[in-house]
Amino acid sequence: MFENLKLTVESLALLEEKYGSAEAALVQLENGSFIALRDVLWSALVHEDPSLTPGDVGRMINLKDALKAVQALNEAVREAFLLH
């Protein structure tokens, strides 16, 4: 599931609509917000299935997988912003 994460312009726009800015969403994620984790994951997965909702993503991830999800998001952020 986490290997298909992709932050695109659309992903960032979706986060901007929910948080005011994509950066604000990432700050909430860094602060440990499960809502932000769900929303950022959703924005990075919706390219796979446009009918996917944040709630769908929240139901796919259990607490055991949360750390893996955060690590995968960190990699997606590095790729999106060319931080390799």
Helix share, percent: 55-70%
The count of β-strands is 0
Q: Biggest sheet, open or closed, and with what strands and sense?
A: none
Q: How many domains comprise the coordinates? A: 1
* Helix/sheet category: mainly alpha
Provide the gyration radius in Å: 11 Å
List low-confidence stretches. none
Give the distance, in angstroms, between the N- and C-terminal Cα atoms.
22 Å
Helix and strand element order: HHHHH
Strand content: under 5%
Overall 3D form: globular
The average pLDDT value, as a whole number, equals 90
Counting DSSP H or I runs of 4 or more residues, the number of helices is: 5
Walkthrough of the structure:
The protein has 84 residues and is mainly α. It has one domain. It is built from 5 helices and no strands. Helix 1 packs across helix 2, helix 1 runs antiparallel to helix 3 and helix 3 crosses helix 5. The radius of gyration is 11 Å and the shape is globular. The two termini are 22 Å apart. The relative contact order is 0.19. The mean pLDDT is 90.
SSE topology:
Layout: H1 9-19, H2 22-30, H3 34-45, H4 54-60, H5 63-80
